[in-house]
Design brief:
2 strands, 119 residues, 61% helix, two-stranded antiparallel sheet
Length: 119
C-alpha cells in the first residue's frame, strides 16, 4: 500500500469487470479501505452501489474518480476541501476525458478481438 508521503507511483490497469469490491479498489488505487469509506462521505461524486449487508460494489467510473481524488490529495497536495472544489468544477470535463479513455480502451480491446478472429 501507499501512504501520503510516497511520490507518484504507477497504478495497475483496471480490469474489465463491472463491479469491484472495496478490497479490489483499495489495491487498484493504492489507498486503504477505511480511506475509501471516508472519501465517500467527503466527495459527492463517489457513490458505490451498496448491496446485502451494506457491502460496497464500485464501478469503473468510481475507480477513476478515486484515482483522481488520490492524485489531487497525495500527488498535487490539495486539501480535502480543495480537492472537493476542484472535482466539482471539473466534473463535466472529466466526464468527457473518462469517456474518451473508455472509448480508447474499447477500441484497443476490439482490435485485439479482430486479430484473434483473423487467425
Amino acid at each position: 500500500m501507499l501512504d501520503a508521503s510516497s511520490g507518484s507511483v504507477e497504478l495497475p490497469a483496471i480490469p474489465g469487470k463491472r463491479y469491484f469490491t472495496i478490497g479490489e479498489v483499495s489495491e487498484l488505487c493504492g489507498v486503504k479501505p477505511h480511506v475509501l469509506r471516508y472519501w465517500e462521505q467527503e466527495f459527492e461524486q463517489l457513490k458505490p452501489v451498496k448491496r446485502r449487508g451494506n457491502r460496497r460494489y464500485y464501478q469503473r467510473h468510481d475507480v477513476l474518480v478515486i484515482r483522481q481524488i488520490r492524485s489531487l490529495l497525495y500527488e498535487q497536495g490539495f486539501t480535502i476541501g480543495g480537492a472537493r472544489q476542484r472535482l466539482s468544477s471539473e466534473t463535466a470535463r472529466d466526464d468527457q476525458n473518462q469517456s474518451q479513455q473508455i472509448i480508447r480502451q474499447l477500441r484497443t480491446e476490439l482490435e485485439e478481438v479482430l486479430q484473434i478472429l483473423k487467425r
